[in-house]
Specification:
By secondary structure, the protein is of the alpha/beta class. The chain has one domain: Rossmann fold (3-Layer(aba) Sandwich). It contains three helices and six strands. The chain has a six-stranded mixed β-sheet, with helices on both faces. Helix 1 packs parallel to helix 3. The chain starts with a strand and ends in a 6-residue tail after the last strand.
Length: 123
């Protein structure tokens, strides 16, 4: 089953477009006219639609606030350079290799590492 994503409002339109061009099913909070909804509402919307949240918001990486069972997955992008022109060529190939690991996990992506927290490997 292909991965489906929900792009948080802090994700650039160009990244959403690039994900779609690479075959990913992506809904965008901005396009859905949901700007300003709470993190909890984002989690609920993603869970209703069986989507993995893509965000820059560190709050989504907090296992105490959002335990693994409470969502379908989170990809937290924490590159030092947050520009889409830097992120796109790094993130898309990474997603292609991580397809079977990000569902139901918190995946934190930085310049130096990719950390995946899941029920099999909790913090």
């Amino acid at each position: 089953m292909p991965l489906k994503f929900l792009a948080d409002e802090n994700i650039a339109k160009s990244l959403v477009r690039a994900l779609r061009q690479n075959g990913y099913d992506v809904k965008d909070i901005k396009e859905e006219k949901l700007i300003g909804i709470s993190d909890k509402e984002v989690i609920n919307k993603a869970k209703e639609q069986d989507r993995i949240i893509i965000t820059h918001d560190k709050d989504f990486g907090n296992l105490l606030n959002y335990p693994l069972q409470s969502h379908c997955g989170v990809i937290l992008i924490r590159y030092m350079n947050q520009s889409p022109s830097y992120i796109i060529p790094k993130l898309i190939p990474l997603l292609d290799t991580l397809k079977n690991k990000v569902k139901g996990s918190i995946t934190i992506v930085t310049d130096d590492l990719v950390r995946i927290e899941n029920l099999d490997n909790p913090k």
